[in-house]
Design brief:
Layout: H1 6-24, E1 27-31, E2 35-39, E3 48-52, H2 59-73, E4 78-82, H3 86-95, E5 99-110, E6 125-128, H4 133-144, H5 147-163, E7 168-175, E8 178-187, E9 191-199, H6 208-222, E10 227-232, H7 237-242, E11 246-255
Parallel strand pairs: 3-4, 9-10
Antiparallel strand pairs: 1-2, 2-3, 4-11, 5-10, 5-11, 6-7, 7-8, 8-9
Helix pairs in contact: 4-5
Length: 257
């Protein structure tokens, strides 16, 4: 049984969340530990985000300040609200012409208790591609339909992050020399995080993403990480559960048309 308490696990989740988004952002904003906004500069609402994480005094004031921070950047963005807080902020967001959208699930796995087969990725051609980000971004672009411009902007943010010494690791799975699946692993002091898990649509259903996740978890464990976290779409839940991840809490996304 894990020795990490639920409240500590949530705190570590947000720590990893902040590390990743701060690493790839041009600028960020924090309202103590309750709200955080990240502007990556990529023209995609899913990559410029305001997270509403905890309640407390002046929550509405902080929410409006965070929205103002991102509005001044002039880019599309989303507001991502912890499910426990949706009832508190829904009316305010609706007044501001926000629409309630998809739900995601914050997940975690205790690497100390998680057993990986020694040959987890033996049958796959998986490479670390920090110096070949063009290969890494191709499956991400294809899977998330980001388009050439968005993919190029996102690649540039990851390249700058690596140049700045940010602890990001990029893995790519190849099939006959073609990059078909990829992900990003970020490493904190004790907690790792998975992002950008994507597989070319025509190559999905072949176990590529699962193999990449196993490889990333094994690497994180080798690096001394005790936990690994991720934020899952509804479509990805079954893959992550099979990989050993459990649910922490939910997020609800609000967007503007």
């Amino acid at each position: 049984m894990s020795s990490v308490t639920p409240s500590r696990t949530v705190a570590l989740y947000h720590q990893a969340e902040d590390l990743f988004f701060s690493a790839i952002s041009q600028k960020s904003w924090h309202f103590d530990d309750r709200l955080a906004a990240y502007c990556t500069g990529v023209v995609a609402s899913s990559l410029n985000l305001l997270f509403v994480k905890r309640t407390g005094p002046d929550l509405a004031t902080g929410l409006l300040a965070g929205i103002g921070f991102l509005e001044r950047a002039g880019l599309p963005f989303c507001v991502v609200v912890h499910d426990d807080l949706v009832a508190q902020v829904r009316a305010l967001l609706l007044e501001q012409h926000w629409l309630e959208g998809d739900r995601t699930t914050s997940m975690w796995v205790d690497l100390g208790l998680h057993e990986l087969p020694p040959d987890a990725a033996a049958n796959f051609d998986i490479r670390r591609t920090d110096e070949r980000l063009e290969d890494w971004v191709a499956p991400v672009e294809s899977a998330f339909e980001s388009g050439d411009a968005g993919a190029g902007q996102y690649l540039a943010r990851h390249r700058v992050a690596l140049q700045n010494g940010q602890p990001l690791v990029h893995f790519t799975l190849y099939e006959q020399s073609l990059p078909v699946s990829s992900l990003t692993l970020s490493l904190g002091q004790t907690v790792a995080r998975l992002d950008d898990i994507g597989t070319r649509p025509e190559c999905q259903g072949r176990g590529y993403a699962s193999a990449l996740i196993r490889q990333a978890l094994a690497y994180a464990k080798e690096q001394g990480m005790s936990l690994c976290v991720l934020e899952a779409s509804q479509e990805g839940l079954s893959i992550y559960r099979k990989a050993g991840f459990g649910t922490l809490f939910g997020y609800t996304t609000f967007f503007r048309e």
